[in-house]
Every structure is written in C-alpha cells, then in structure tokens.
C-alpha cells in the first residue's frame, strides 16, 4: 500500500471498520493521478465516471453563468471528496466544472467499481451514506447562510469551514464562494473590526 492509498484507507477507517482483505479490494480499484494547477478533472457537459478523493493540493467545483462569472460550490482540500453528484448518480452531462486550485494528487475510483465494492465490502456503503448525510447538512447550512447572513458573516463562516485554505486561496475564489465580488471582499477586509 502506497502513502496515497494509505491516506484514503485511514480516512475511511475514521468512520467504519475495514478488514485487511477489504482494504486490498479497495486499493485494487484506486488510480492515483496528478492534476496540475488549473487543469480540469471534469468540464461542464462531460459525464462524471469516477469518484474523486483529494490526497494533496486542492480542487474546486463551480459553475459559470451566462455572463462568465464563476460560482464556486465547493473546495476539496486533502481528505475531501468532490463530485458533480447529479452527473455521477444519473450518468448525465455535468453542470459543474472541477479543476485544480493547486498542483494536486487525487485518487480516482470508477463508479462501476464503487457499486461492486458496495456489495463486497460490508461497511463501505455506510461510509458513503455518512459522507452524503454530512454533505447535505453542510449544503443546507450554506444555503441558510447565503440567505440570511451578511457578507462579513459568510466570510467568517468560510474561514471556519476551510481554515487551512483561507491563507492560500486567491481572494477571487473566496469572493466567488461567499457570493460577492473580489473588489467588495478586498474593501470589506480592509475595514477595521467593530468592537
């Protein structure tokens, strides 16, 4: 087992137990891949055929509106999964783009292999159910934040969710994620804190 797949296995084992034989089955379907900064893993219109786990670096998922503005849905630092869920589940053209924020290392698992592993590895479907439940809760919370919080409060929430990324992401990405322009974010961050 290499360090990349060990990282994946350890991530899964934080939530469910795997036997040594189950770990081997999982590792056998893992493909480790390098993704260069700004390189696409998935582009709008393509069909997502792999689940993606980030080992190093950072990926993001986003859509582009008719005016060319990006709307970032998710960042995936090390230890996170990223996907266009509708494309994955329905095998339909993606509505999201997924690319690398930095040079990154990812693990790919073919969706067909994942379906087979659900039958062969007792707790793997439970692991992905836990991930799905957490993702739904996170997205609900983010939607509520976007409807009810000020830009400054959304920025604070972002810093709490992605503490390791706040210092290394371009401000335009952070602005896109919280739904404001980069210029407004810059101005907001220059304002003195109110006591």
Describe the model.
- The radius of gyration is 18 Å and the shape is globular.
- It is built from 8 helices and 8 strands; from the N terminus they run ααββββββαββααααα.
- It is an alpha+beta fold and 195 residues long.
- The longest helix is centred in the last third of the chain and has 25 residues, at 124-148.
- It has a 4-stranded antiparallel beta sheet with strand order 1-8-3-6. Strands 2-7-4-5 form a 4-stranded antiparallel beta sheet.
Task: Give the key terms.
alpha+beta; 8 helices; four-stranded antiparallel sheet; 195 residues; 22% strand
The general outline is globular
* Strand and helix order: HHEEEEEEHEEHHHHH
Oligomer: single chain
Total number of β-strand segments? 8
Biggest sheet character: 4 strands, antiparallel
Mean pLDDT: 93
Lateral arrangement of strands in the main beta sheet: 1-8-3-6
The rounded Rg comes to: 18 Å
How many helices? 8
SSE layout and pairing:
Blueprint: H1 3-13, H2 20-28, E1 30-35, E2 40-42, E3 50-56, E4 59-64, E5 70-76, E6 81-82, H3 85-90, E7 97-100, E8 104-110, H4 111-120, H5 124-148, H6 151-161, H7 171-178, H8 182-190
Antiparallel strand pairs: 1-8, 2-7, 3-6, 3-8, 4-5, 4-7
Brief sketch in words of this structure:
The protein has 195 residues and is an alpha+beta fold.
């Amino acid at each position: 087992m290499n360090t990349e797949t060990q990282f994946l296995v350890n991530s899964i084992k934080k939530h469910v137990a795997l036997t040594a034989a189950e770990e081997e089955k999982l590792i056998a379907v893992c493909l480790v891949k390098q993704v260069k900064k700004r390189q696409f893993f998935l582009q709008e219109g393509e069909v997502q055929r792999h689940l993606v786990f980030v080992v190093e670096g950072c990926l993001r998922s986003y859509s582009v509106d008719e005016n060319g503005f990006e709307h970032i849905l998710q960042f995936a630092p090390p230890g996170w999964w990223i996907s266009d869920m509708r494309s994955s589940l329905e095998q339909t053209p993606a509505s999201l783009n997924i690319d690398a924020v930095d040079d990154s290392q990812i693990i790919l698992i073919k969706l067909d292999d994942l379906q087979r592993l659900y039958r062969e590895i007792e707790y793997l479907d439970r692991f992905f159910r836990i991930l799905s439940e957490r993702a739904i809760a996170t997205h609900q919370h983010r939607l509520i934040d976007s409807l009810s919080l000020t830009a400054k409060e959304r920025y604070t929430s972002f810093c709490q969710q992605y503490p390791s990324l706040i210092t290394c992401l371009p401000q335009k990405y952070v602005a896109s994620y919280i739904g404001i322009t980069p210029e407004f974010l810059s101005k907001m961050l220059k304002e003195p804190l109110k006591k």
